[in-house]
Amino acid sequence: xxxxxxxxxxxxxxxxxxxxxxxxxxxxxxxxxxxxxxxxxxxxxxxxxxxxxxxxxxxxxxxxxxxxxxxxxxxxxxxxxxxxxxxxxxxxxxxxxxxxxxxxxxxxxxxxxxxxxxxxxxxxxxxxxxxxxxxxxxxxxxxxxxxxxxxxxxxxxxxxxxxxxxxxxxxxxxxxxxxxxxxxxxxxxxxxxxxxxxxxxxxxxxxxxxxxxxxxxxxxxxxxxxxxxxxxxxxxxxxxxxxxxxxxxxxxxxxxxxxxxxxxx
Length: 265
What we know:
Elements: E1 2-6, H1 15-25, E2 29-32, E3 37-38, E4 41-42, H2 46-56, E5 61-64, E6 67-68, H3 74-87, E7 92-97, H4 102-107, H5 115-135, E8 138-141, E9 146-149, E10 165-169, H6 172-178, E11 184-188, E12 212-216, E13 224-228, E14 242-248, H7 249-253
Parallel strand pairs: 1-2, 1-13, 2-5, 5-7, 6-7, 7-10, 10-11, 12-14
Antiparallel strand pairs: 3-4, 8-9, 11-12, 13-14
Helix pairs in contact: 1-2, 2-3, 3-5
């Protein structure tokens, strides 16, 4: 069992002191989330917060849970991930998510894609990031991205070992496409609860607690990881916000879709 603490955004807590305290307390790792806001909660920039945490610690893992693919280019994400891996001296895990909060995207003047569009954009981004983290280079021409980072125009591989790439996905179609591209995947059993940014957790019978599973795409083990933090969409309830269970991805995909949720068009 591994326990990760999520930085309590929206509070007066300093990321540096908070990270150092969590390492002293004996946590396995700490996380920074990527939002402008969720309800009344305002977030620091995820890469800045994660770097502060990395520089304030020496043993525990640092991860982003999860960077928003709708905010930025996959090339910029890969560059930041490689730099964070160096700052953390090999302790960083690069978490990239599809993005789910419609209000944030529209407030930035961007267009929020439909479900299929977000998934296809996410798959392309993960494909690009995977190559960039491993080699510093990628040439890709897809529906959403046209990237040529190669030859003399390549990213600096600032660490001897690239950070593991972690994704978050829900639904059988997305999972089957995502799992081959990443080292681990958080399987969001509650993925429908965050459609277009509506946090309608109560219909799933889990209150304001998010639950998911995490599959190791290498099939390397059956570790369990639990991520604990405050979920601020309702300030009256602040409970541990997610659980991740790492299982063999191949065994997971061989089973029927486990949550009984009907697919939405």
